Amino acid sequence: MQMLAISEHGDCGGVKMEAPLLEVKNLKKYFSINKGLLGRKKKFVKAVDDVSFTIKKGETLGLVGESGCGKSTTGRMLMRLLDPTEGQIYFEGKEISNLNDNQIRSLRKDFQMVFQDPYASLNPRMKVREIVSEPMVIHGIPKEERMERVEKLLTVVGLSAYHADRYPHEFSGGQRQRIGIARALAVNPKLIIADEPVSALDVSIQSQILNLLKDLQEEFELTYLFIAHDLSVVEHISDRVGVMYLGKIVELADKQSLYQNPKHPYTKALLSAVPIPNPRLKRERIILKGDIPSPSNPPSGCTFHTRCPLATEECRNKIPQVKEINPGHYVSCHLF
Amino acid sequence: MAETMLKIEDLKTYFYGDDGVVKAVDGVTITINKGETVGVVGESGCGKSVTSLSVMRLLHDTPGEIVDGSIEFQGKNLLSFSEKEMRQIRGNEVAMIFQEPMTSLNPVYKIGKQLEEAIQLHLKYDKQKAREHAIQMLKLVGIPRSDEIVNEFPYQLSGGMRQRVMIAMAMACRPKLLIADEPTTALDVTIQAQILDLMRTLREESETSIMLITHDLGVVAEMCDRVVVMYAGKVVEETDVYTLFEDPKHPYTRGLIGSVPKLGKNANRLDSIPGNVPTPSNMPKGCKFAPRCSNVLKVCLEKEPVLEKVEANHTCRCWLYQNTETVGV
């Protein structure tokens, strides 16, 4: 019986394979931009177009990309704040993409979100105590436990228990982000989806929050999906990194391979574009021509071919498939 | 000795609100030479943007006021200029690029019209010639189909293109000084690389002096010759760009450099500066950075240090480096 259970998890030849905490398969999200009335053709923005990845327990997966690449939409679909157009999401082996709103609400206890804007994501008319305990109210944790837990959570994120009776406007941006993190931790989640959690903060505060996220991960065995546009921040926090361009993951690998040995021309260009705080370092920079094409009318073939310095005829016509070029290193490019 | 383009001396810009006086800029001195790019670095609320607005004299619809100091542009004191005289300078000899390309272009006028306005006004070109010059400027900043773009509205362009239009507008009258306030902060990295590249080319071609206001130390390292670090309305350190990154003196500068995650460096933890930037209502008594400083001395909490020379070409406002006789006081 036990043997059977193990073989179901793909254990073969004595290599122990751990089932991923989260698995995303062929996820798509199309937003319609007109009504398609009277025989007019319906038009779509393909915000996320066939994205697949897994997140193992205890690891941090970073998603990077420029504005409009679909990284936030992906995060929102995982939270089921948006319904996927197509594709499946499995959380601990259970499909969650087909659950209705009521069923998903009780499951959200296990995955929580930290938002970008610490000014807009806290209700200004609620005290910190109410903000942090709200998820616990929803998930039916008794009152005495809640009160105790709020104060404990505030200490964990580097605030003090007496902050519980203040309002959000009394805090600075960094402190507000700490409140947002305390709220996310309130129901003991397994997965935290952090959507640009530090991009609105000053550098000295940004490093405080990044260190806090790392400490909390160790202490509570958290798994993170870390969505950001800043490549250095993503490198710092992640174990594996996925690079998105126009709704697709173009490259996904562990941090070392991706940053030391990038394969996709877009990843290379992106990395070479980051200004490095060292004035002596003179690098060869790949400057991409033009802008990101509109996702409502993406280029044919490989969506990157309009800006790619190495584009060939094949790239213009054929959509590249995702290939595993090294163990765990996935690239979607005709060059490989 | 290089020709001095801009000399800001002991500038004090205060804001008068219901809760009393906010000393946004409190005794700032910055000199920019011809052809030089000077970076002004600091976190939000340190007064870097107010300094630039003071130079442009654009504070009249704010409760802010320049209470002391002088701003000399090519030897002329800008603070003694009338509004009419300032208009001759703005967009002509001194131009500015703002952070938000969307909000700094007028949404109801076509791109061409907005560019031509400054050209006709300052270069006294006629309509035909102004249009040609506008198209030429757009070509220069790398805008494709520039003869069509002049007839389009800002909403039809992407963020990077709008920022290019802003740069074309700023450079149209060949300014001697360009003030760029976070010119690439709102842009994606690949577009940022394009814009920085463009600013470098334009600087080499026209010998324009640039005052680059930013919070991004990477941009500073790439663009600047000299750097001024500001904290709570004051300059805390000033030196050339190499010394700043290799031998920073002020604990704030060091903390700032340590806080930035660096590409390719696999540090497990980042250095961070504890605490928050002080709010104007509870400014510390002595050194403004003392409550967050890891090297704090007793004197720091009581008396504010002055900006002093620590080496030739390197000044720092910190008790750790003050002359012994001054410390003894």
Tally the structural domains of chain B.
2
Provide the helix percentage of chain B.
Answer: 25-40%
Low-confidence stretches of chain A: 1-16
Radius of gyration of chain B: 21 Å
* Global mean pLDDT of chain A: 88
- Count the DSSP helices of chain A: 11
Counting DSSP E segments of at least 2 residues, the number of strands of chain B comes to 12
- Which second-level CATH architecture of the domain at 19-35 and 42-103 and 225-275 and 282-336 in chain A applies? 3-Layer(aba) Sandwich
CATH architecture of the largest domain in chain B: 3-Layer(aba) Sandwich
Largest sheet of chain A: 8 strands, mixed
Primary descriptors:
heterodimer, A: 336 residues, alpha/beta, Rossmann fold, 8-stranded mixed sheet, 4-stranded antiparallel sheet, 31% helix, 21% strand, globular, disordered N terminus, B: 329 residues, 2 domains, 12 strands, 24% strand, ATP hydrolysis activity (chain B), transport (chain B), ABC_Ni/Peptide_Import (chain B)
